[in-house]
Amino acid sequence: MLSALLWALIGGTVIGLLGKAVAPGDRDNVPLWLTVVCGIGGVLIGDFLYRLVFAEDNRGVDWWRHVWQVVVAAVLVAVASGTTGRSRR
Q1: What is the distance between the alpha carbons of residues 38 and 31, in angstroms, rounded to a whole number?
Q2: What whole-number distance in Å separates Cα of residue 57 and Cα of residue 52?
Q3: For 19, phi and psi rounded to 5 degrees?
Q4: CA distances from 11 to 21, 43, 61, 63 (A)
Q5: What pLDDT was estimated at residue 80?
Q6: Helical H segments across the chain, by residue range
Q7: Running along the chain, 89 residues long, what does each successive block of 10 average in pLDDT?
Q8: Is 5 exposed, middle or buried, given 0-12, 13-18 or 19+ CB atoms closer than 10 A?
Q9: How far is residue 75's CA from residue 70's CA, in Å, rounded to a whole number?
Q10: Is the dihedral of CA 34, 38, 39, 40 positive or negative?
Q11: Domains in the chain: boundaries
Q12: Rounded to whole angstroms, how far apart are CA atoms 40 and 54?
C-alpha cells in the first residue's frame, strides 16, 4: 500500500511535469501541487484509456502508454491553468 502511494506520487510528479512542459498556454500559473495532481490524474486516466483501445500483449516498457499519460496530463494542466491559476497582481 505504501509503495503504491509512493510510486503514484513519483510517477504523478514526473508525468505532471512532462505534461506541464508540453501543455499549451500559460502554464507558469499552475502551482506544483496541482501539477502533481494533474500528473496522477494523467497516469490513471491515460492508463485507463490506453487499455480501452489497445491489448495488453507487449513485453518490456510500453512507451505508448506513457505518451497517452503525458498527453492526458497536459490536457489536465491546460484546464487547471485556465481555471485555477495563480493571480499575477
Answers
A1: 11
A2: 13
A3: -65, -40
A4: 15, 7, 14, 14
A5: 87
A6: 2-22, 32-53, 63-84
A7: 79 88 78 89 90 77 86 91 65
A8: exposed
A9: 9
A10: positive
A11: 2-84
A12: 21
Here the cell at position 19 is 505534461
pLDDT at 41: 92
Residue 76 C-alpha cell reads as: 489536465
Choose among 79, 6, 89: nearest CA to 42: 79
Question: Which amino acid, residue 1?
Answer: M
Please calculate the CA angle 62-71-39 and round it to the nearest 5 degrees. 90
Burial code (b: 16+ CB inside 10 Å, e: under 16) for 47-63 equals beebeeeeeeeeeeeee
pLDDT for the residue numbered 88: 52
The neighbour count for residue 9, using CB atoms within 10 Å, is: 13
